[in-house]
Structures are given as C-alpha cells and as structure tokens.
Specification:
By secondary structure, this protein is α/β, with parallel strands linked by helices. About 35% of the residues lie in helices and about 25% in strands. It is globular, with a radius of gyration of 18 Å. It starts with a helix and ends in a 12-residue tail after the last strand.
C-alpha cells in the first residue's frame, strides 16, 4: 500500500457516524494557493504549461462527494468574506443552491497597519465557526475542520470532551502547532490533493496580453 493509500485508509477509519465539515475559506484557499505543482501532478491537457504558471484549486463539488463517500454528511458549512463581485456572488450561489452548502459571509474589514497601496484586509470567522459548531453539536458525530488557526484549539478540546471525533485538515507551514495534538487526527491537504483539489492555470489580470505559457 502506498503512502497516500495509507492516509486514505487512516481517514476512513477515523470517521465515526454523521459528519459535519466546517471550512474556513480564507485559510484553506491560502494554503492551497501556496502548494507547489510538481510535473507528475500536471494533467495531460495542461502539459504545455510551465508548472510555475499552474496552481492547485479547491474543487468544492469533489470535496462534497469525497466526504459523502465516507459517511452521512449532516452539513458542510462555508465561511468566507463577501467580495461583492459578480463572479464571487455566482460562486457563493453555486455553493448554496448547487451544492447545498451552509454559507456564512461578511464584508472584509480593512486595518490601518499597512500602506494604502498594500492594504491589510481580513474577515475572521473564528467566533462564528466555534459558536455554530457548539450549537449544532447534536447533529454530528465527526467534526471536520479545514483551518490551521490556533484559535480553534479550545473548540476542538470542547468537542472532544463531548465525545466528538475531531479531524483537522490543513497544510504544513499553515497549521498552528497546537492543533494537531488537540485533535483526534490531523491530515495534510497535500496528501489528499488528488481527492479534493485540481490543477488549473493561474488566473491572470484581465489586461494581461501574454499567454500563460
């Protein structure tokens, strides 16, 4: 059995009863954005591209099917800043109406600790995810968190005390050192890249004239 197959089996054994998936979108997207694309992971139709012009993207429809194949999914909750653009609004509508995700959005908050040219904008959902997970704890047996934020340590410890199986997905370099030991299981997204992600060309500015390869 290969290393990736071994990790898949470990996850399958970790799942107990109904599953609730909570996605800290900013954390997940930033993690996958910084994952390297290696030549053997490039699909045939993208072989003409340099790997530096490709990146990993989350496939949320595939993510949903992946967990549905592991057990009954009670809910998939998605927490994201609302950017207000047509494309992002369409994306959120697809998640809600097309995939049945539970959405929680709020505007980006701009902080004054950066320059106007490079602003610091964030929309943290630590409180929302924690409160929702506690209030909804009777709906699931397995809590799956896509985030590496250290603020979730207390939530995970609480849920484990309530008898919940707690699984964290993040990426090395993006996960707080407190989370893996606090959870029942920690998995690196890299080990599940073929199950949850896909390789696509990097998005280019609309005014870019040069091809991506």
């Amino acid at each position: 059995m290969s290393y990736l197959e071994d990790k898949a089996q470990e996850l399958k054994k970790a799942i107990k009863g109904s599953i609730a998936v909570y996605i800290d979108a900013a954390n997940l997207e930033q993690s996958t954005k910084e994952m390297f694309v290696i030549p053997r992971d490039v699909p045939q139709n993208l072989k003409a591209y340099l790997t530096g012009n490709l990146r990993w993207y989350v496939k949320y429809d595939i993510l949903k099917k992946f967990f549905e194949n592991l057990g009954p999914v009670a809910r998939i909750a998605f927490y994201s800043a609302g950017f207000g653009t047509t494309s992002h609004n369409n994306f959120l509508a697809f998640l809600k109406k097309g995939l049945g995700f539970n959405l929680n959005t709020k505007p980006l908050k701009e902080y004054k600790d950066h320059t106007p040219e490079v602003p610091h904008r964030k929309a943290n959902f630590d409180v929302e995810i924690s409160i929702d997970a506690v209030l909804q704890r009777d709906d699931f047996n397995t809590f799956v968190l896509f985030s590496g934020d250290c603020d979730f340590k207390y939530l995970i410890e609480y849920l484990r005390g309530q008898g919940k199986m707690c699984i964290v997905f993040s990426m090395r370099g993006h996960v707080a050192e407190e989370l893996p030991p606090a959870s029942n299981y920690y998995f690196d997204i890299i080990d599940f890249r073929h199950d949850l992600l896909e390789v696509r060309p990097k998005l280019r500015p609309k005014n870019a004239k040069n091809p991506a390869f």
